[in-house]
Write a structure and sequence with these properties.
Layout: H1 2-22, H2 30-36, H3 44-52, H4 56-74, H5 80-86, H6 92-103, H7 107-112, E1 141-145, E2 148-156, H8 164-179, E3 188-192, E4 206-213, E5 224-228, E6 231-239, H9 245-256, E7 262-264, E8 270-273, E9 286-295
Antiparallel strand pairs: 1-6, 2-4, 2-5, 3-4, 3-8, 6-9, 7-9, 8-9
Helix pairs in contact: 3-9, 4-6, 5-6
Length: 296
């Protein structure tokens, strides 16, 4: 069963990568790519990064630059501004900066001397990461949760898929204020993404964070609520700095899911913060990751 799940996920990510390849000169949105590949928007970003080895935004930029470099190599008289616009960049300078970051030389130097690149131009990019996992990960629990209710506030922006990096102190203070209130014993702190981040460094994506309750309560901490339906969740633990949460997420989607007897449900995964952010000792932070699943 596990290998069937792995094959299905690999096939869908391959389909997503091929769609990107066929539309490099067009506007590419993560939500549209996910829809084309028949993948849940709640899981697509993490699945793509886990299977391809890099975030989708980074992959798209790299493929556009590689394609542009090959066009420059084949036609040294090509106008760089036209090439930049055709590669999805809005200006000559933005394209040149990205090109130099990718290949180590500017496009004008490359046009005159294609062999001057510090890093080579890939003719064909490997589609799927196939190396065996360096570390196995196991779910600590498969939990059937009843309906619960998230009282949330909204923040914006991610860094490598996480939002604590940018707003660490402020979010921590808001969580502390929530914990200081008289709350039911089963309340827990959590966060989730209501919309798909367009990339793992999306400055505009909203993040909901707050307290989860088995019943909706009266509280002045916040007035917005989201209701999670009854369902099954695979539960994983991350011990340590929030900066490395993305590694645990990648292991879940890349190493655990393909071999599990479960498939993803179309619901939001979330993080539960068992120990609040402690700037003085990140190693003591315990986070539980809940991934919505159902029997395959």
């Amino acid at each position: 069963m596990g290998m069937d799940t792995q094959d299905r996920n690999r096939a869908k990510i391959t389909k997503a990568a091929q769609y990107i390849e066929d539309n490099l000169s067009e506007v590419l949105r993560a939500s549209d790519i996910a829809k084309h590949a028949n993948l849940s928007p709640f899981h697509f970003q993490r699945l793509f990064a886990a299977y391809m080895g890099e975030p989708i935004s980074q992959y798209i930029v790299a493929r556009r630059l590689e394609k542009a470099a090959l066009e420059l190599k084949d036609c040294s008289k090509m106008n760089i501004l036209q090439l930049a616009l055709g590669s999805g960049f809005h200006s000559h300078s933005a394209f040149s900066k990205a090109f130099k970051k990718q290949f180590g030389v500017s496009p004008s130097i490359f046009r005159n001397s294609p062999d001057s690149t510090v890093r080579g131009v890939a003719q064909d990019r490997q589609f799927l990461v196939s190396a065996p996992p360096s570390k196995a990960i196991e779910a600590v629990d498969v939990a059937d949760l009843g309906q619960f209710h998230l009282q949330y506030r909204e923040s914006f922006g991610t860094h490598e898929g996480q939002f604590f990096r940018q707003n660490d102190q402020d979010i921590g203070q808001q969580f502390s204020a929530l914990l200081a209130k008289d709350s039911p014993p089963d309340m827990f702190l959590m966060s989730c993404f209501p919309n798909t981040p367009q990339n793992l460094n999306d400055a505009n994506v909203p993040i909901w964070f707050g307290g989860a309750y088995s019943i909706q309560i009266d509280s002045d901490w916040g007035h917005a609520w989201h209701h999670f339906d009854t369902g099954t969740w695979a539960v994983f633990e991350h011990c340590g700095d929030y900066r490395f949460l993305y590694q645990t997420w990648n292991q879940i989607y890349r190493n655990w899911l393909p071999h599990a007897d479960y498939v993803l449900r179309n619901d939001m995964p979330f993080e539960s913060y068992v120990t609040p952010s402690d700037p003085s000792d990140h190693s003591r932070q315990l986070t539980r990751i809940y991934v919505p699943i159902k029997k395959a």
